[in-house]
Amino acid sequence: MTEIKKTPYSLGIDIGSTTAKIVLRKNEEILFEKYERHMSQVRQKTLELLEQIKPYVEDEEFTVALSGSAGLGLAESAGIPFVQEVFATGELVKKLCPDTSAVIELGGEDAKIIFFDGGTDERMNGTCAGGTGAFIDQMATLLDVSADEMDELSLGCSRIYPIASRCGVFAKTDIQPLLNQGARKEDVAASIYQAVVNQTIAGLAQGRRIKGKVLFLGGPLYYCRGLRERFRETLGLSEEEAPCPEYARFAVALGASIYAERTGHCTTLDELSGSVRENINVGSVSNRLSPLFENENEYELFRSRHEKASVEERDINTYSGRAYLGIDCGSTTTKIVLLSDDKKILYSFYDSNRGNPVEIVRDQLQKIYSLTGDRIKICGSAVTGYGEELIKHAFGVDMGIVETIAHYTAAKYFMPDVDFILDIGGQDIKCFKIKNGAIDSIMLNEACSSGCGSFIETFAKSMGYSIDEFAKKGLFSKAPVNLGSRCTVFMNSSVKQSQRDGATVEDISAGLSVSVVKNAIYKVIRAASAAELGEHIVVQGGTFYNDAVLRAFELELSQNVIRPAIAGLMGAYGAALCSMKLEQSSIISPDELGSFTHSSKSAICKGCTNNCHLTVNLFSGGHKFISGNQCEKGLGITEAAEKLPNLHAFKRDYFSSLEAKNGGRGVIGLPLALGMYELLPLWHTLFTELGFKVEVSQLSTKRTYEKGQFSIPSDTACYPAKIMHGHIEELVDKKVTAIFYPCLTYNIDEKYSDNHYNCPVVAYYSELLNGNVDSLGKVKFLYPYLNINDRRELVAELLKYFRENLGDFNKREISRAVKLAFAAYEKYMSDVKRAGEEAIAYARRSGKRIMILAGRPYHVDPEIGHGIDKLASSLGFVVVSEDSVYHLTEPARVAVLNQWTYHARLYRAAKLAAENSDIQLVQLVSFGCGVDAITTDEVRAILESKGKFYTQIKIDEITNLGAVKIRLRSLIGALDQ
Amino acid sequence: MEKTYISFTEEMKKDYTVLIPNMLPMHFELIRRVFGNYGLRAELLLTQGQKIKDTGLKYVHNDTCYPAILVIGQFIDALESGKYDPHKVALILFQTGGGCRASNYINLLRKALAKAGYGYVPVISFSLAGIEEHPGFKLSIPILHRLMYAIFYADLLMSLRNQCRTYEVRRGESEELAQRWTERLSNEMKDEKKVSYKKVKENYRLIINDFNAIPREEKKCPKVGVVGEIFVKYSPLGNNNLEDFLVSEGAEVVVPGLLDFCLYCLYNNLMDTKLYGISKVKYPIMKIAYKFLLKKQQDLINIINEDGNFDPPTPFSHTVSLISGYLGIGTKMGEGWLLTAEMLELADKGVPNIVCTQPFGCLPNHICGKGMMKPIKEKNPNINIVAIDYDAGATAVNQENRIKLMLANSK
To answer: Do residues B247 and B106 share a domain?
Structure first.
């Protein structure tokens, strides 16, 4: 069939990650085109589409080519020519719209940009930047609207919330709390699009400006007006400059049909359908797992075993007396339990939030009141979960309970000797070990690995199934696919890979269940064997209703566990149990509930320079609840809280107080980021003494990041590095003479560790800046390689370098400046240490808890640290930094190579926390910090060797502190036990 | 400081098997044979497959770099396989040190072994710096001498095989020839008391002649260079058989040799003295070693040029000179400036199509790989680079799709 023949017909098929597109042309005329979701049934859908072109081609010969990431496997096995999709688009645009400067094409899971000006440059998103079409779908599900409705909503927006734009999972953790706090759906919808825009620009353009005529292609951009709107606004383009042509959805398929003509690969419909059909059931055996159940019988045994773990119920219609209400307002679902005074369940509720938990709770309360009438009196109520504050304020709930405590209370009631609890909810994985009746350690998933319940659910929906159907399908898969244990973005592409290998929906469903389990065990718990978990394991959370997940967990551990029949209600059940100590409830009365109203609006907090975006919830009766701020200031509470020592604030103030002098030699800009966060006093003094006016960039804000994000070449670098670009732009705008950020392979040698390196990013980021930040061309950028441990050497290096770059200098003045510079640095370090000692002394005098909020020096930056120090302070901790207290104990012995100056302090500070019962350590970890993959295990080992809690907070661009708050409150809760 | 590791003793040398991870199939096979000749029973791990990744993920922090997950996974997988008596096995890891987290692989391996219940298995640190003591494993001058030639030989074999492979008439012939030579060379090195350089040069010529004799098709194929983090750049396990994939797509693969990396390490020692005034004592020795290797490399280049049928490696001194105007020579963590230099070197010798491989989230690569793409593209408009991340969760389909895009644009 490969004989080259001229035919007027050509067919292009584009099978992307979610949709299949087909275009049939006769010469230049399009005879047929179709765009459909393929629900992962790649081969079947292709056949269906081929069926539909029958009337147009009949038995004529035509040329054909396939394209798209999910089409790769089919092309290989069916022997159809394949053309890479971006290449196909590029060729098409060159032909149809030769005056185009750039193309932005969004697909289901890939984002692409093609630049045509000055040499074609075709780019695709990297591995960690999923979240385009599929991301928008997931977000629409979260908002409980269709994709079309979301588009409609977005056009009515009045403000844009900052939503992390790197990765879909991050964005989701930002969006969910917004919804729970009552933000308007219109605004959230538009903010989601804006996140996609930011992600595309930051991840793909990478420093290259998108200008000239820009073409929007691909399904999502074709269908979402709001998305195009956001792109145009962000890029400053009019509709004429940035059109979305009619063929936008079919661009790749059209491009493929052009490619087909060129290959001259002729076939007929029968022949083509035949070769596709032949391959329909070719399943690949590679990378498969063993089945979850060998047969129905095994499943029955499994089911009956788990059915035993049930809770007694009492009829709400006949019961009379006291009752207790528990509400768990989670990230995606709301759970409600009403208990009788003998702890039996009178009423329960479990459902999706649908983006508005207040409404759900109101409806449920109404229902409960109508059922209870006058027979039953609610004597206590408690709420837990993400929406705790909101629900508490809205309905006058008596108590707010930290999630961990609520869950433990419930599990303990079920199984008094429980020693391990694993809860997989919609968005969180929580694990606690119980020792001697108290929570011994808590592990929560990091924002990056939320491969949890909501992931399976949205995936099920995207494949056209309800979660129940989808889960059932997985139970009897013969060969579940191995999808890896990383984040959801990777899972999406793993699924794509398995589709290429011919996996069925059954295999994918089972594979996803195994992935969720592996993610929990190996990534969150970091366990190597079942024995590490415990002997009496309770699993809970809505995700464990899924029998496939439960089975996968038992198989992975080779151990049976208990899943209470109310697995999804455990938080609410525990909250209700906690409320049983109350006598009188302040919960909203049935009458008040009747006239209950709720509305929300947005505002910006003026309490400090953070300018937090607030959501103001107004309830009937005029009371309100404000959320979204990083500290307690904006809440309208004017309580005269005592100001606790906070070393993070101390360090920030110290830097802000450094004064510049007007010298005659020009202005030197010092970017306050990365290593400058410690060496600022040194360089500041050096340049001041040499007669320069020193201009330091401001403490970072979100705006700082946005200002520089367009020139970031590696989107997986850490946030502290990426924010550097903004600092550079700021200094360039201030028209400094030169900017200085030296390359320091070696950091200060404090003489107790194996070596004293900087991490590669801190050491060499200047090289990257020099290569990628165009505006540096407007100033001198000074980044000499220096040795700061040998002052004579340093003087010689600086003398040579300054003479070459800054004019005439003599050795004496440099020697003098270097001497004073080190004196300033040493004074700074000793001031910090003294302040640390004083803070600890203060805490001990006044009986406060001490928290070492440990990380790197640059984590005190308000944007990088997200004000976590203030949050901890408002929760009653005296906050110190690792570099203010590490000197109070001997160096720690560690099982790894102790070769970085900053991290050596971290280990030592951990040792201090381990040795002192009143000191807790919370480690801040920047997402993407490769070094911390090593330090976290080590810090944890140091702390746990002395029975201390290890708390890790992973931070990135995320602006919502809800999860952090839960973590810190869990820590407090556990300490209180 | 107190010793926290188990030494590999003279006693162990008698009946232990030393397992070597497989980073470069040809090089490591030769290196293994050299060790064998000195009484060390060594075995190269050739295992593949998902189980290695899974084992690695189980015992190593999942955010650690992919090479660590693979190497450690491969070791523990081997120990668990039942093929060896774990009490009669030692492991070897190659270390270069430096500010990258890779310097911690050996510690991560030991932690993982302890976690898996193999804490008693000795791990030999193969490092010229000689940080640890392993009486049963000493690098004598004759061994080092042979190791050096092993690298020269293997670089040559790898390069010639790659230059023939895409064009060979009978599939697999180049690979077979390379295998035969590996066998022959290691036997030779075993028999001789002293390696004669004359003989080495003679061997170069014989190898070149043999490859020349392979019947090849006359066809125009795009040349694709592979650079990146050292493990994923070379190891088929690390890069999902990248070389095979490129060949199957009809490309000629150009991979810079291991010698470049060795020279890079030496050169960085020289630069430490130049830039920071440290390690002044070692400087003269390092300088001699550097010059010595440069001379040997030039000899090989001359011999390849005499024949005229194959592309020789680029003289290292030229490679170094190329990075001027891109980044400083002090960027020395991980592959550091060498990564940038190799991309430029490839472009310089007419290989504009490049796959830049890196483990997901590789720190030095932020700077020297992705961070240098923009200036490289600006100054070399013809260059066609694709950056590919490798990771336990990254899928071949995404990687191949991006490589296909690069190939579609290949020049």
So the answer is: no
Instruction: Tell me what the mean pLDDT of segment A287-301 comes to.
Output: 89
Q: How far apart are CA A521 and CA A404, in angstroms?
A: 18
Give the pLDDT of residue A637.
Answer: 41
- B7: exposed, middle or buried (Cβ count in 10 Å: 0-12, 13-18, 19+): middle
| Residues facing A920 on adjacent strands | A851
Contact B328 A785 (CB under 8 A): yes
A890: how many CB neighbours lie within 10 A of its CB? Answer: 11
Q: For residue A486, which residues of chain B lie inside 8 Å, CB to CB?
A: 62, 391-393
Residues in chain A within 8 Å Cβ distance of B377: 121
**Secondary element (H or E) of residue B389:** strand B384-390
- Determine, for residues B99 and A757 on separate chains, whether the beta-carbon distance falls below 8 Å: yes
**Model's pTM, two decimal places?**
0.86
Please indicate, yes or no, if residue B101 is contained in any of the structural domains. yes
* Other C-beta atoms lying within 10 Å of the C-beta of residue A437: 12
User: B7 phi and psi, to 5 degrees?
Assistant: -80, 155
Out of A482, A496, A518, the one facing B50 most closely (by C-beta) is A482
pLDDT digits (tens, 9 = 90+) for B271-280: 989 888 888 8
Residue of B271, B231, B12, B34 lying closest to B139 (CA atoms): B34
Note the pLDDT of residue A640: 41
Q: Which of A721, A763, A771 sits opposite B372 (nearest CB)?
A: A771
Residue A628 has pLDDT above 70, yes or no: no
* Segment A143-166, tens digit of pLDDT: 888 889 999 999 999 888 877 665
User: A491, B393: Cβ pair inside 8 Å?
Assistant: yes
φ/ψ region of A484 (left if φ > 0, alpha if ψ in -120 to 50, else beta) reads left
CATH superfamily of A102-244: ATPase, nucleotide binding domain (3.30.420.40)
Q: What are the residue ranges in chain B where pLDDT is below 70?
A: 1-3, 128-131, 191-192
Going from the C-alpha of A284 to that of each of A73, A77, A480, A492, A868, the distances in angstroms are 11, 11, 11, 18, 49
Residue B288, pLDDT score: 95
Which residues from A are below 8 Å from B108, CB to CB?
896, 934
Assign domain A840-976 one CATH number from 3.40.50, 2.60.40, 2.30.30, 3.30.110: 3.40.50
Of B104, B334, B393, the CB nearest to A760: B334
Select from B107, B138, B169 the last residue of a domain: B138
Count of domains observed in chain B: 2
Query: How many other β-carbons are positioned within 10 Å of the β-carbon of residue A304?
Result: 9
Q: Identify the domain containing residue B29 by its residue range.
A: 10-138
